[in-house]
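Hi R.,

Here's the chain you asked about this morning:
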Amino acid sequence: GSELLDTLPMLVVERPGSRINPLAKHAVRLQVATPDVSSTRVREQLKIGGSVSGLVSPSVAMLLV
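And here is the predicted structure, written out as tokens:
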């Protein structure tokens, strides 16, 4: 675990309410506008056969089906 954090460059997408592991010395932060949708919610919808319309883009929804 710590070997990876010490040696590998990482691209980290920042999300509201999350924080980057301070041990990731080579982390490059990428700030982008992200939807306020958790992956857990998307997975739960898929598990029960529900729709993910409005939760993810149409192109992503096609990949999840």
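One quick note: The CA atoms of residues 14 and 60 lie 20 Å apart.

Cheers,
M.
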